[in-house]
């Protein structure tokens, strides 16, 4: 994630739904034809007649079919990781796979599932994001998620005070907004005091204003013993001199469990500026303005803050260290019943040394860059969550090329560029003889090579 980008309010890219998805084609054809009943019958008959031999072929030559579809899926994922404009094509690949699974009954075929469990689970998980009521990418519909998690992501009432909202909505009055927070802290106990500071994000704007990089982060301490989560509430702040309003407010909450994990919850809100000067706040989704896939950026739930150099006042730098220290206490992220992280497989930097040597050559494995390909030492199941697809390229490139990760590493600029390029290639490679992490996992080769198999 880019330095200084820690909440999903920073992700302004919206998913583009492909106009070519099969289920829409039939609807549009029937709508335009003067004999819709006849077209519907003939279309269904054609589909039924065509599907039987196609499905028989898939099952009879399953290895070859899966291998070709894995290549297509990984290539499409790599393309959209590199360029957002490739997203419609990627959606078509996922949609067609999900459609074949359904028509051919592959998800319920025990023989097929037992042979390709990774591929089946992955396609089913990716396909959720294509449904119009699953923009968050979760197993349950967006409405259900927001209803069930309302208490965990609600903005604290003292941060919706009209006076504070007016102050935090303009750069010129931002210091007065902080003065309000300091007055609140004066009456709070030591373990209840708010931690707050303003800063500039390095690369990403807010969902409603992609060119706005100002932020005010307020961390509201929780109490796990009472089921009260810790909340990271972030307000988008207009840049100095900007006349346009920034509406976004984001909440990421973390509630510690006894097993060392933390349940993580997300929600984006938008401010509405009324003609009478009042400001209301309502969920972005409830306002009908869409939402984004949460886990795409938040593999580890709450993420640390790496602001633009010089954007944090000297007397607030301690607060940056304080919130990052709190992040390190949260443990492994847990998305509960809403997301099964195991369906997405291993992430960046998780290749074996043998696989890395086959891909890049024996001479590479002894280099400083190779020794720095250690993302999975922290970002893995049971740790901070794997960096696996879907993931955001701006976030990852900023972390690696911007100098924050790997933590504590000393690399030159060219070395960091090479490190990032090697990590991406190692993950997305579709070379038949030297497959990357994602392809190898989807084909079950990592399972076959594991000591427990």
General description of the model:
The protein is an alpha+beta fold and 453 residues long. It has 3 domains: 22-131, no CATH class; 148-337, no CATH class; 340-449. 41% of the residues lie in helices and 11% in strands. It is built from 18 helices and 7 strands. Strands 1, 2, 3, 4, 5, 6 and 7 form a 7-stranded mixed beta sheet that branches. A hairpin with a 4-residue loop joins strand 4 (248-256) and strand 5 (261-273). Helix 4 packs across helix 6, helix 9 packs across helix 10 (174-186) and helix 15 (393-401) runs antiparallel to helix 16 (413-428). It is globular, with a radius of gyration of 24 Å.
Keywords summarizing the entry:
453 residues; alpha+beta; 3 domains; 11% strand; globular; disordered N terminus
What do the pLDDT scores average to? 85
Helix content: 40-55%
Oligomer: single chain
Structural class: alpha+beta
Which consecutive residue ranges, at least 5 long each, have pLDDT under 50? 1-48
Judging from the principal axes of the Cα atoms, what is the shape?
Answer: globular
Assess the beta-strand content as a share of residues.
Answer: 5-15%
How is this fold's topology laid out?
Blueprint: H1 22-32, H2 36-60, H3 62-82, H4 87-104, H5 110-115, H6 117-128, H7 142-148, H8 150-153, H9 162-168, H10 174-186, E1 195-200, E2 214-220, E3 230-237, E4 248-256, E5 261-273, E6 279-283, H11 294-297, H12 317-327, E7 332-334, H13 353-360, H14 368-371, H15 393-401, H16 413-428, H17 437-442, H18 445-449
Parallel strand pairs: 5-7
Antiparallel strand pairs: 1-2, 2-3, 3-4, 4-5, 5-6
């Amino acid at each position: 994630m880019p330095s200084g980008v820690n909440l999903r309010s920073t992700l302004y890219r919206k998913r583009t739904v492909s106009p070519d998805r099969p289920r829409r084609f039939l609807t549009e054809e029937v709508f335009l034809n003067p004999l819709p009943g006849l077209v519907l019958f003939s279309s269904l008959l054609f589909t039924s007649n065509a599907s039987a031999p196609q499905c028989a072929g898939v099952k009879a030559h399953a290895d070859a079919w899966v291998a070709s579809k894995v290549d297509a899926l990984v290539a499409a994922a790599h393309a959209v990781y590199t360029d957002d404009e490739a997203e419609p094509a990627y959606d078509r690949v996922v949609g067609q796979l999900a459609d074949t699974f359904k028509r051919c009954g592959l998800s319920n075929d025990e023989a097929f599932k037992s042979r390709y469990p990774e591929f089946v689970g992955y396609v089913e998980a990716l396909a959720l994001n294509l449904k119009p009521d699953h923009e968050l990418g979760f197993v349950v519909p967006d409405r259900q998620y927001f209803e069930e998690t309302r208490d965990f992501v609600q903005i604290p009432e003292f941060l919706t005070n009209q006076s504070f909202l007016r102050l935090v909505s303009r750069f010129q009055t931002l210091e007065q907004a902080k003065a309000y927070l300091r007055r609140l802290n004066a009456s709070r106990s030591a373990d209840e005091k708010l931690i707050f500071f303003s800063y500039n994000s390095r690369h990403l704007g807010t969902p409603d204003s992609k060119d706005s990089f100002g932020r005010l982060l307020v961390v509201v301490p929780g109490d796990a013993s009472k089921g009260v989560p810790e909340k990271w509430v972030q307000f988008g702040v207009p840049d100095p001199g900007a006349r346009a309003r920034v509406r976004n407010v984001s909440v990421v909450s973390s509630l510690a469990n006894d097993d060392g994990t933390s349940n993580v919850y997300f929600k984006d809100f938008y401010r509405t500026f009324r003609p009478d000067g009042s400001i209301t706040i309502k969920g972005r989704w409830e306002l009908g303005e869409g939402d984004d896939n949460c886990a795409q950026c938040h593999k580890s739930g709450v993420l640390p803050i790496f602001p633009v150099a010089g954007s944090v006042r000297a007397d607030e730098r301690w607060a940056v260290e304080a919130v990052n220290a709190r992040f390190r206490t949260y443990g492994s992220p847990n998305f509960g019943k809403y997301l099964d992280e195991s369906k997405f497989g291993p992430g960046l930097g998780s290749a074996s040394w043998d696989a890395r040597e086959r891909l890049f050559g024996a001479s590479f494995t002894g280099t400083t860059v190779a020794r720095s390909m250690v993302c999975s030492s922290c970002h893995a199941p049971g740790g901070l969550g794997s960096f696996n697809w879907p993931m955001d390229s701006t976030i990852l490139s900023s972390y690696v090329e911007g100098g924050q990760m790997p933590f504590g590493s000393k690399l030159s600029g060219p070395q960091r560029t090479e490190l990032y390029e090697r990590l991406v290639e190692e993950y997305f490679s579709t070379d038949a003889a030297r497959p990357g992490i994602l392809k190898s996992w989807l084909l079950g080769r990592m399972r076959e090579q594991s000591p427990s198999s």
